[in-house]
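Researcher: Batch entry, complex prediction.
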Amino acid sequence: MSPNFDDIVGGDELDPQDEARLRRVHQLLVQAGPPADLPPELEQPADPETGRLVDVPYLFQRRRGLAAVLVLAAALAGFAGGFAFGHGKAKPAAFAAERVVAMQGKNGRIGVIKLGHADTVGNWPMLVQVSGLQRQTDPRAYYELWLTRNGKPVAPCGSFRVHGKTTSVRLSVPYTLRKFDGWVVTQQPPNDRGIGPVVLST
Amino acid sequence: MALALRTMPLVTGETASTDGELIQRAADGDRSAFELLYRRYARPVFGLALRRLGDRGRAEDAVQETFASVWRSAASYKPERGPGAPWLYAVARNAIVDRARGRSETPAEIPDEAEPGDGPAEKAEQGWVAWRVHRALEELPEREREVVTLAYWSGLSQSEVAEFLGIPLGTVKTRTRAALMHLADILGDEVA
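Model: Structure tokens for the complex:
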């Protein structure tokens, strides 16, 4: 049942002009219905400290590309709850990022790696978000994230498949990150144990 | 005696910027402007997406996509064509439509008869109204937003709201009136 205007704001005499305005607002509130309950992941706006937000190892040549990566990183950094496989069907616990690394590829492909705090034995949790990667047609095909040395992929960090325009996955690596100089994502064809073509890189 | 309901301006300083001004600043790479837009519109975008998509996960994706698009496309906003809210609404709607398309994996059958209920035009109008109202709610001080939410969508009577909040009934009514008058000021033409 719709709330009654007189029950809510009635009681004292109102200026007719004010009453008309209040009644109109009342109608609009009833018509609009309740606002959505914003999930915790979306509660926080992006981190205002731009400099600490994105750790970009190499300067991008195109501002547009950087802007897209920045906003992805900003959005990701703001989502305290993190993401899960399959469009958030399961909600993991909050993910505290230590730094965020941006990746870029051709044709508008972008990616963000959100690095958490390493545990006592050196496991680095990561939240990886990629956008614009081609959806694999073969059920055995996948993408692989690598750490690079001298620009070449040398340490595998985990595999994933994309399910839409943007995919987010949690991974973990046990490496000493400072020994590497960047990250790439490769497209791995089925039944191929080699390193596939690079589709995203820092 | 008629109550003096004219309200003081709600916004000062940075938050006094219009949506259009914030979009223009975001186009120049101003992240603080982008964050203000996010605070103002994250909930309305999520609400709109949730109503259209019916799935929280997809709605969350739509919020991300919307703000990514806002950042990327802010330079395309032309203030001479109108205020920022309709432009943001269009960006959000496009992101949501993209998500809705992605959900349709099988071709939809064309019904022989019109479905009961509101048509696309009515739904669009309702979406816009909800967008404006929920956006306006974001501008209210917390204690005013609280009484409006409880009064309209909790199912509680005003007496029960007073009991729930531990404040006198008269305070609840006064606060509710002030909140509605603030909303009227924010909504402007919508209540003219």
